[in-house]
Amino acid sequence: MMENKDRNRLAMHLGETLREARKRAELTQVDVAERVELATEVLGRIERGNMLPSVPTLRKLCRTLHVDANAMLGLDAETAPSWPEEPDREAEDLPELRRVLRTLRRMDAAQLSVVGSTATALLRYSGQRPEDPSE
């Protein structure tokens, strides 16, 4: 069983590593929490070293932030193989786009239809061709 002192040291290291990786990826706590299906408050507690994530959550965090689990846990990265990286479709998204996506996810079907029609009209007005959904 892990002593309290060791547990606290691990939690602090993991939190610092997590925060650094998140900032390096230019993501907010909300962005990361959403991607790993975690409450933002819980992610904040983990980053502050007040809480350790479950193993499945740790794995999602590592994949989302492209950080080796051994590094996250303060272990030598050469002693164990790392997980294969999964492509991160939103890695290149601008912060503005991420904020819009968070807002859109809270809308119902009728609201999304209005936003979609408005976006299409804006594209046409600016001379751009809207994406064809049948393609």
Which key features would you list for this structure?
135 residues; mainly alpha; 2 domains; 7 helices
Which regions contain 5 or more consecutive residues with pLDDT less than 50? 79-87
Share of helix, binned: 55-70%
Q: How widely separated are the two ends?
A: 56 Å
Shape: elongated
Which architecture of the largest domain would the CATH scheme give at its second level?
A: Orthogonal Bundle
What's the total count of β strands?
0
- Taken in chain order, the helices and strands follow as HHHHHHH
CATH domain fold name of the largest domain: 434 Repressor (Amino-terminal Domain)
> Number of domains in the coordinates?
2
State the secondary-structure class.
mainly alpha
CATH superfamily of the largest domain: lambda repressor-like DNA-binding domains
Question: What's the average pLDDT?
Answer: 82
Structural Rg:
19 Å
The biggest sheet, with number of strands, parallel, antiparallel or mixed sense and barrel status, is: none
| Number of distinct helices | 7
What percent of residues are in strands? under 5%
CATH class group of the largest domain? Mainly Alpha
3D architecture notes:
The chain has helices at 4-24, 29-35, 40-47, 55-65, 69-73, 95-105, 109-125. The protein has two domains: 1-77, lambda repressor-like DNA-binding domains (434 Repressor (Amino-terminal Domain)), CATH 1.10.260.40; 93-135, no CATH class. It has 135 residues and is mainly alpha-helical.
List the helices and strands and how they pair.
Blueprint: H1 4-24, H2 29-35, H3 40-47, H4 55-65, H5 69-73, H6 95-105, H7 109-125
Helix pairs in contact: 2-3
